[in-house]
Write a structure and sequence with these properties.
63 residues, mainly alpha, 2 helices, 89% helix, elongated
Length: 63
């Protein structure tokens, strides 16, 4: 039971960090690029978040 709580807490912490990164990129694109449509800003945020997750998990696998 203790291991399940540890695993859930660890995974939820990772998901929260990814979500915060997504929000930061979305806010940054909203501030810096006024010419883009909202759907383009969301796509940029998803793309950057995907790169962030890929790099983070690939570095974690090397350890």
């Amino acid at each position: 039971m203790n291991q399940i709580k540890k695993l859930f807490f660890h995974k939820s912490r990772e998901l929260i960090s990814v979500f915060v990164f997504f929000l930061l990129i979305l806010i940054w694109t909203s501030i810096t690029s006024k010419d883009y449509h909202v759907s383009h800003k969301i796509f940029i945020a998803f793309f950057a978040t995907g790169i962030f997750v890929f790099v983070r998990w690939s570095l974690k696998e090397k350890q």
